[in-house]
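hey so i finally got around to running both of the ones u sent me last week. sorry it took forever, my laptop kept dying halfway thru and i had to restart like 3 times lol. anyway pasting them below in the order u listed, first the sequence line then the structure token line for each. didnt double check formatting much so if smth looks off just lmk and ill redo it

first one:
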Amino acid sequence: MTGAEVVANFLKKNKISHVFDVAGGMIAYLEDAISRTPEIQCLPSRHEQASGFAAEGYARISKNFGVATATSGPGATNLITAIGSCFFDSVPTMYITGQVNTKDIKKNANIRQNGFQETDIVSVVKTLTKYAKQVLKVGDVLYELEKAHFFMKSGRPGPVLLDIPIDLQRTSLEISKFRKFYGSPEHKKLLKKSVEPGLKNKIKKLEKLIKESSAPVILIGGGIQISNTQKELENFVKRNNLPVVSSLMGLDSFPGSSDDFVGFIGSYGNREANIVFANADLIISLGSRLDVRQIGNPALFATHAKVVQVDIDPYSINNIVKSHLSFGMDLRSFFNLAKNLRANPKNAWRFFIRRVKENFSKKSVKSKQIDPNTFISKLSAVSGRDVSVVSDVGNHQMWLAQSWKTKPGQRLLFSGGMGSMGFALPAAIGAHFADTNKTVVVLCGDGGFQMNIQELETVRHQKVPLKIFILNNQSLGMVKDFQTTYLKSNFQSTVIGYSNPSFRKIASAYELDYVSIDSGLKEIEFSKILNSKKAVLVEVKIPFNTTLEPKVTFGNALDNQYPFLSEEKMKLLRAIKAEFEVTKKSA
């Protein structure tokens, strides 16, 4: 069996159905072996970055891992942004790059390059992967595949990279001579985990904190989806009568229509959710790293609240926010540990939340021009449980987070930590092939859409029935808003020097159905688009001066969002708080 056949057989054994690639000389044998494996389809992208994002979309929907391959040099370096995206958002992905013949690999670090397109990709991606290794012996190919797989899946998941020289891909060796990692002394040593001491006492402390709390709230992050513990979360919430707020990455982990769900928190969060979050006296953070986008000014966050943090990554605990109690463990183990925990209802707190939601939620806007929040609310309302929405990065991403009400079974995919424009279209392609029974919606801005626009040919060629919504405001809106606030409206490179092609002509060139929307859309028209068996490109024309609100400006507390509350609204909020204080004392 050749080194390339070992790779193909390993992917087959792990039930990988699609490998995303761009052809290249240094991975020719690997592509040949994979393409000859009936259970796996090689799916070519038009750019390696798109292959990397497609592998991420595939991994997040399939709950397996994603795979992308690329040739040496530019092929490998083009994967870097996607590798970083998976590293920051804890997505298990395996990137396999080709390399020049082992005899041609430079031996002296001071020599820039020996072979054509030779690049030390392993050194380049060391800080963005859980494991990166160049394989130098054909007998080590299986060992390194298994080792990379182990690191990719264990603990906090993330990407790995293997760099395999072309001569090892074509070299044959008896199957018995390929070393194995699983079951080896190294594997057994890595399996030995230290158990955090005093866990039962910690659970008792948590139960005491919840019972003593007058205003508890759960914050959910991306860890819920990663650990596949949505049901366990719902049971924990119901047993303890706890309200839920969500970070960006946690939004598809809890039903948006639930009475227990308050909303999306953070710099661009729902005002009502930020107010509730800021007034909690106990915050239970589940799988969320509590970064500055979630908490606003750290000096003004949780000044009267105790924070409990549960996270598999010990370095995320007590990083920005200091916790009163922490659990350094995976969420499945935590929920199992806390399965008998039951706290008393907090009716006064529930009444406070209801009053805040009634008076401070953003209302739909009736206008002849399109309001993005209203538009997304309508799209959300008609979307079925089989819908996955893949968002690009920009204002539209936050409008989606503010206004989409997630239904059970729906998925929302965001590029969170990396925040990469150009993510949505290729990630949606990967999401489609992970589950072809789902309807995949792409939500883009006009700027981000152009960054991987070439993947429309992949959509056309592979007949991928994506529903692509481009919110077009003829600018790079999020940065334009920043320039308005801080740079005296000098719109350099967001408006000045920026332009769009005709998206109608783009759709025609790629043989896609095209719909243009410049005013309100009826529900029946939304349904027609979503139910189409073909790919549809929908250009949604929103006003140039549309802004993203509410938002936390620099230095402000989470519940002090722009546009700032009027004196009348502030007076109402103070009255609701005072009412809560009286009610909880009498409870």
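and the second one:
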Amino acid sequence: MTILVYETTLRDGMQGEGMFLSVQDKLVVTRVLDDLGVAYIEGGWPGSNPRDEGYFTEARRLKLQNARLAAFGATRRLSSTCDSDPNIQALLRAETPVVTLVGKACRFQVTQALGIEPQENLEIVADSIRYLKTRVDEVIFDAEHFFDGYADNPEYSLSVLAAAAEAGADYLVLCDTKGGAMTDDLQRAVLAVRAAFDRPLGIHTHNDADLAVANSIAAVTAGAVMVQGTVNGYGERCGNANLISVIAGLELKKGQRCLPEGKLSKLTHASRTLDEILNLTPKHNQAYVGSSAFAHKGGIHANAVMKDPRTYEHIEPETVGNHNRILVSDLSGKASVVMKARQFGVELAQDDPAIPVILEQLKRLENQGYQFEAADASFKLLVDGAKGRRPSYFVLHDIDVHVEMSDGTLDVHAFDCVSRARIKLEIGGVVAETKAEGDGPVHAIDKALRNLIDKFYPSLKKVELLDYRVRVLSSAEGTGSVVRVLIRSGDDVESWGTVGVSPNIIEASWRAMVDALEYQLVRDQVEAYV
């Protein structure tokens, strides 16, 4: 059976704290979602703000290959007719083939939130759907607060669904609006609705009880054929159902088709692309698509995975566009080191004499605060060093860093600040010195270093700093704490991570910077200057 995936990042997802997309951003997201192969893309609420209205105007020019575009809105007001209701008319102006209409399906919400009589709500639901059904291709009814209403007064909640169905709604979507439904209760309710109505059902869950994905899958098991949610679980409060996990779970565990053939492998790309557009850091431990979803750290695990990935991986990572990773740490055994080195194109036999050296260095360095999970390039250099084949591209003689800071304004938080760095290096037996100014001491050091070694190793000119992070490791020491610096560098081919640890942030940064540059030189097989 095919399950219809209804994606609502552009509307419900934007209700999450700190979430914002411009019209152009929303158009880019629309293309990504269409390429993923979802059946519906809810573009927004055209009656709520000018940005959504502008989006629908621009979206008419899109040539979608897989998805139908939906506009979202509420039933008409009690005091209005559909012809005069501004929200209803805004839905029509959106000119989408699909309109999703939300209405109260809980007696308590009707009397308390809307302040109207239960019968009046039934008439409003029916009238709004009937009006739209004669003017658009498809009308989906979102039964808001359905599960709360069904638990309190099932007769009334079912009467709302009956009014929507009789008025011509194409789908009845049952909403766990507050996100607190328990899975067994929700599934029983879906089964009851399925027995009472011949209209196809949908499910819309929120994650306030951390059950949105489980509840969505349970609803499908009970008969729902449409699942509403968002990529990565974006949304108000604790978020919506994470469609990444719902889609993967239904396709790989339940045998239900959610996306067109060949599209499942795009899940990881879609997840990370949307995070990038929204300027969010991807969750490394997110199921299926996270960078840690198929990462193995313990030596026993790594040894088993090396023999057969099925020993500790519940699916093949490639089916969702991900891949496995072997992490190295002081928990690592020989198998971890062998597999990790292999990922860098370095073959180590199980009895290689360098392996005990590598393990001893790993334990010593991690005891100091080093971690190599996000610093693969530093690990590669460690292996090369243990094998006696890490070239010496230059030798540091000394670094002098000078920072001038003065309060030149009336703003106590604003300072005039200048950082200068002087570096003396020995390259190929020649001692050279250089100076540079930067926005801060680390920037000044980086510029001075690059000014000098780029002349000897021109290929380093293409290396760029992509990310720089500092983590305090021993806060009990206050400003004298040990820090770990993680640097992400890259060129036009790939990106790589390096790490440095020290009580001195300048030293930690230096170690990470040097590893980043030397990794590129080793990778490109550049000979040390002599």
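quick thing i noticed on the 2nd:
Residues 295-368 form one domain.
anyway thats it, ttyl
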